[in-house]
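Table S2 (text version). Query chain:
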Amino acid sequence: MAKIAVFSIPVAKRIFDATCGGSSGEFKEFTRPGGGGGASLFKVTMKAPWSSGVANCDIYSIDGTVFTDTTIDANVYDGLSIFASLTTGDHLLALLQAGKYYAIQAPCP
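Corresponding structure-token output:
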């Protein structure tokens, strides 16, 4: 049976330093958006028009009113064609769930 432990960031840094020979400056905090079965909200900017309910987009993380480019380009899905009138350069909100981005909201025209 596998055992799982959860450590605070300072403890994880000490473990990393002791076992990997690195300095705490090398230890990067990270998150895996959309992991654990939940959903995460992102701002997306369309890089191409919709094609069969899918558009390639730039993905931005959201922290309050600040949007940060994640440097991720990904397909965003609009299975009901709710946002079919949007095109390259338009912005939407999308949820990341189970490894896929789903368009959920856009500004009103």
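Notes on Table S2: The chain is about 10% helix and 40% strand. The helical segments are 9-20.
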